[in-house]
Amino acid sequence: MSSLHDRHRAVSPDWLALYYKHPLEITHGEGRHVWDADGRRYLDFFGGILTTMTAHALPEVTKAVGEQAGRIIHSSTLYLNRPMVELAERVATLSGIPDARVFFTTSGTEANDTALLLATAYRRSNQILAMRNSYHGRSFSAVSITGNNAWSPTSLSPLQTLYVHGGVRTRGPYADLGDAEFIEACVADLEDLLGQTRTPAALIAEPIQGVGGFTSPPDGLYAAFRRVLERHGVLWISDEVQTGWGRTGEHFWGWQAHGQNGPPDILTFAKGIGNGMSIGGVVARADVMNCLDANSISTFGGSPVTMAAGLANLSYLLEHDLQGNARRVGGLLIERLRAIGAGSECVREVRGRGLMIGIELVKPGTDEAHPEAASAVLEAAREGGLLIGKGGGHNTSVLRIAPPLSLTITEAEEGAKVLAEALRSVG
Ligand code: PMP
After folding, report:
1. What ipTM does this complex have?
2. For labeling, which of 69, 118, 143, 391 is most exposed (least CB within 10 Å)?
3. What is the pTM of this model?
């Protein structure tokens, strides 16, 4: 294990940060559990956001992948491909976007890149509005719409990006405002910005900011933004890479929580749909999707094997009502964690929807981010057999919980106990 870590250092760039002082090598998984190279079992409260949407080693997905791989592993371009067409039809219907078309990619980054390509071509503008504290991926254009400099390694950009308020609720000039005043201030800021710039192509937003620490604007903000933007013809891109597929419990897509004005013009997805296989994609109205006037293909996007995984995974998710499970089990978990948080001086807030829960840590008696505590809790939880994540701007001080959507109540309670213990270790 340690020699693997040494080899990893030799082959990887310094900016590739791993979790834990002694990084974990995960060798296999089942359900909501994974095992490390020493045979130790962990309850996985973070795999859901990374890749594993339903469950580790889900037999239905494994079987579909094996059978498809045994038939043909091929590029999806140039020839017809039945699993891709079937998954596209299902995703188009589920998206809520009228007359929707789907284009498959291999990652969330590439999905957002494609959305930017479409929006800028459709609107003949390279101006993009993005949210402060956002994260949208790691390509040249995706980092240039990422409003969090811990994840945006260059300021050079093919786009002109303007960042709007509303991404982080808890800090910044509007932190002390109530919901209605906050919305009013952010909308006034947006109107002011639009008055001073050329017309942007689109605004891209995560319904709940993932890497930014599971923070979301108050209900009504995005709807108010959209009313303003529609007057200017600016498109709305909903980055559902973390919030899609029922994770937030009440809704299948994150946009629906902000959806007074209907579906977005463009929706991007990735991560969990393949349950670990690399699927990303863009859904857009036909007129937006078809605005490019040259070929723009992806060799591996939509490959039959990943599509077979996506179809099996999506069927399992819908047939077992995992969205309902996220609502029920997530609701209970948030309640438990709020009770635990109330007893800790370090916990500023427990927030989230469904199985997407953040615990923001601060230095006791202050409003100051506490990244040391977040790292300590991460380590202590691991010791207790629980894997969680962290995030939240530069001062990574929000614990992130996003288990596979099949999490049981017993497992939720088991994980909450470990977290309570881990939080006690930091006070
Ligand atoms: N958008 C969001 C909201 C994300 O959280 C991520 C990944 N953390 C991405 C885009 C990029 O996805 P990928 O890592 O698959 O390129």
Report:
1. 0.99
2. 69
3. 0.97
